[in-house]
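Incident log entry.

Two folding requests arrived from the same account within the same minute. Monitoring flagged them as a possible duplicate submission, but the sequences differ. Recording both here for audit purposes.

Request one:
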Amino acid sequence: MHSWRDVLSVSARTDVDRMLSAALSMAKQQLSGSSEFDPFALVTDIDGRLLAADVDLTGLGRHPESDKIADAATARLRMLAPTARASALTVNTRLSERRTDAVEVRLEHREGAALMVFLPYKRPRFGGAIDFGELMQSPGAREIWT
């Protein structure tokens, strides 16, 4: 069985690894100060710089739902695709079968890889540090470079 990594060049694997690390770090930081976070997007540009992708929330209302923000972020990533090498959309999600919350990172590279990575977490009842579980991954759908 082939891994998603097998279809990528060394530089593309580096892009995906850097992007995943940055996305998880940002999500953990946001969760340390709040019970959840709004979806956010990252791109690796043609020159290899890791950048936050600004998402236009105009017209989504005062307190838009997460799925609407994720849709707007996906649209923005599609617009940036011609000048990007990789993208990540990070959302706060619920893993129903495991009865836990998780950070979900939807990664995609222009060379062809698309995957979803989940980092389950549990909050302690009475304060304290968040308990993060083991990373899980599954194949993703290509949404940016189609």
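Request two (distinct sequence, not a duplicate):
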Amino acid sequence: MGMGNERLRRAMAKKGVSQEDLAAKLGVSKNSVTNWIAGTVPYPRNQAEIAAELDEDVLWLFPKGNVGSEAAREELVRMWARRSDCPSDYWWSLIVKAERQVAVLSVSLTS
């Protein structure tokens, strides 16, 4: 077994954030934070929240951030080529049902 995520542990210590504090701020269990420090790679949404909370770069905190295609599929609900392809009533239902946040990834490929 590896050494775990020493970068995450050090970043938490630097900010004075305990496992309990981080768990509460992210809305996860303390056990989840313990697992991340032990080396379990969090879901991408959690990685971004952790990095923001600790004022660190997500790629520095989680250099092995690829959680695998199975976990990625669990996070991906549905995808369209263009935002306009998504029915407006679906957008509304996503927003209304959100328990914590709604994140929209928008990529513009212009030359």
